[in-house]
Amino acid sequence: MWRDAALVAGKDLRIEARSRVATNQVAPFALMVLVLFAFALDPDRGVLRRAAPGLFWVAVLFSALLAIQRSFALESADGARDGLRLSGLDPAGIFLGKLGAVAAEVLALQVVLAAGVAVMFEARLHGIVLLATTCLVATAGLAAAGTIYGALAAGLRVRETLLPLLLLPVVAPVLLGATRAWEAALGLGIDDGWRWVQLLAVFAVLYLTFGVLAFGPLLEES
Amino acid sequence: MPAAIRLRSAVALLGRFPALAGVDLDVAAGEVVLLEGPNGAGKTTLLRTCAGLLPIASGIAEVLGNDLSRDRRGVRRRVGLLGHAGFLYDDLTVEDNVRFAVRAAGAPRDRIGPAIERLGLDGRLRGVTASRLSAGQRRRTALAALVGRWPELWLLDEPHAGLDAAARDIVDGLVAEASTGGVTVLLASHEVDRAAALAGRAVHLAGGHVVAEPAGPSRGDGAGSREPAHVA
Question: What topology does CATH give the domain B3-226?
Answer without folding.
Answer: Rossmann fold (3.40.50)
